Amino acid sequence: MAKKKFYVVWKGNKTGVFTSWDICKRHISNFKGAQYKSFLSKEAAEEAFKGNYEDYKGKDTKSVQLSGEALKKYGKPIIPSISVDAACAGNPGKMEYRGVNTETKKQLFIQGPFEQGTNNIGEFLALVHGLGYLKQRNLNLPIYSDSKIAISWVKKGQCRTNLQITSENKVLFDFVKRAEKWLKENTYTTKILKWETKAWGEIPADFGRK
């Protein structure tokens, strides 16, 4: 059964929170510059309606399922900051990672694709790359990742993957060794923070391939 959705119309023939696409469509049809989004909970939709369309434009609001009170608990992401993410076609499979400006989504760095990698390895490498990127530029900004595993690996200073080294992924593991060496030889004050997907939607660095 399809999940029920709630529709917010910020600009349209009639504004508000509506309980079906047919009703929403009626209120935005033939309205130039209509602003609307769908949500999976009434609470999230009502909370969004109190705000501005620009806060939700381009975001995966379908993942925002928390109540208004829960959303308030998480607050909003820290700006300025950078966000990192990885994408992997298969497990293992072809993997790449990147970092972006959290607010503008401007790409700051990207690596890959690497053969026979995993998403967790990519998330780990993305975080370490982000730490080096910020330190090299003397920037004191937090880094967001939606991977608890990668965050824990970075804090432990080691990529604790069970993936075996092969001739296909040797280049990838060379990157892993360099990342671990960087963590061992460098100190940093950068805050590594968990991106709260349920409250904020997909992380800005997401490759959009889900």
From TrEMBL:
SUPFAM superfamilies: L9 N-domain-like, Ribonuclease H-like. Mg(2+) 2 binds at residues 123, 146. It catalyses: Endonucleolytic cleavage to 5'-phosphomonoester. The keyword Magnesium applies. GO terms for molecular function: metal ion binding; nucleic acid binding; RNA-DNA hybrid ribonuclease activity. Gene3D superfamilies: Ribonuclease H-like superfamily/Ribonuclease H, Ribonuclease H1, N-terminal domain. PROSITE patterns: RNASE_H_1. It is an enzyme of class 3 (hydrolase). Binds 2 metal ions per subunit. Manganese or magnesium. It is found in: Cytoplasm. Its cofactor is Mg(2+); Mn(2+). Endonuclease that specifically degrades the RNA of RNA-DNA hybrids. Belongs to the RNase H family. This is Ribonuclease H. It comes from Lutibacter oceani.
